[in-house]
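Usage example:
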Amino acid sequence: MRKLVAAGNWKMNTTLDSAGALASDLAKKVQQESSVEVILCPPFPYLTTVKEKVSGSSIKIGGQNCYHETEGAFTGETSVGMLQDIGCDWVILGHSERRHVMGETDADINKKTVAALEKGLGVILCVGELLEERQANKTNEVLQTQMEGGLSGVSAEALKNVIIAYEPVWAIGTGVTASTEEAESAHDFLRKWLTSNYNADVAESTRILYGGSVKPDNAEELMSQPNVDGALVGGASLKADSFGGIIDAAVKLSQG
Ligand SMILES: O=C(CO)COP(=O)(O)O
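Running the assembly step on the lines above writes:
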């Protein structure tokens, strides 16, 4: 069975104090839980503090973005090596806010993905359709384009260090969650894409997370779908109680 993932994307939220307190509370809760992989992605300035607070627990940390160049005159950017330097195991790439607010293209996301994987930094690659794309029955087409674009040149071996996150844009921060059927259908499409573009083993072992208004009260149902291997959580990851509830749901399913 694929190990379930509970990943918190804090986006541009928290303060130094609240980030540290949240990380400490979660570290106390998670301790050395090995049945679920818990990943926290705080804002860049708080990564080091969060890393310190979770030391001694099994929680991993990740960046919310990175740049593909290794160093140089790229004001405001953060390299893969810098993330690794401060103890990140993961980076979120292709988040819909990067795509639709910052204008990142599949080609940009691909360069970052390749750069991260070359250095051994794990990638949580986000894909997902806009509401108008879903309404025009273009969901699978969009997912296919984003998978092909994002993973261009990525080998089956490198893909072992990739988690896919299906995040329908219309479900992010809206309180509207994809139904279990909608989530499962998109995840099934993504797994089939992995089978045809890589192989059955890769498709079987790659984790595909759902993201979009995941809360403690819908997490268990979503994660119990055969092709949903965990959650990438925004708003509900900002409180230890609610993210803790989502972690509990994942632990319960893993042990069940
Ligand atoms: O974008 C998300 C995680 O990356 C989801 O955000 P919400 O859980 O706030 O909908």
